[in-house]
Amino acid sequence: METATFLFLSFIIVQRLSELMIAKRNTARLIEKGAYEVGAEHYPVMVGMHSLWIACLLFLGYDENVSYGWLALFAVLQVLRVWILGTLGSRWTTRVIILPEPLVVAGPFKYLKHPNYTLVVAEIIVAPMVLGLFWVAAIFTMLNAAMLYVRIGVEDKALEQLRTK
Q1: What is the radius of gyration, based on Cα positions, of the chain?
Q2: How crowded is residue 28: how many other Cβ atoms within 10 Å of its Cβ?
Q3: Rounded average pLDDT over 91-110
Q4: For the chain, how long is the longest CA-to-CA vector?
Q5: pLDDT band with cut points at 50, 70 and 90 for residue 162
Q6: pTM confidence score
Q7: C-alpha 89, offset from chain centre
């Protein structure tokens, strides 16, 4: 395995595991503040899809060379990720948690309704392309589109009342 490939795959694993820990902590704190979860039924499917995506990157990409052009684009996406997570702060989670308070409208939320989902769409395409795995990018883009259709529908319906305030 090339060093760059090892570092790239390690970054993705460490990042995603760290995010799950942060999301779990934030979810618990939001629930303590009176928030509630919607759409819990689709969450295991989403976690499974993302886990399978990472497994494909690992098992199919471990012996591939890194495309530095795609890696540069992936790095730009990580800057956007930090901006999104920083803007949401303790309100960021991997679940659809509804806090009956005004919505975040600063940072990237000033420009996009769902910047985090936009970022995930881009990452699902770009990360496999870093390793030349076009078909992984294509398949998971379709699976993610179906997942986001469900998830955004659930989230938008739940947030409808907060958007009209």
Answers
A1: 17
A2: 11
A3: 94
A4: 53
A5: confident
A6: 0.92
A7: 15
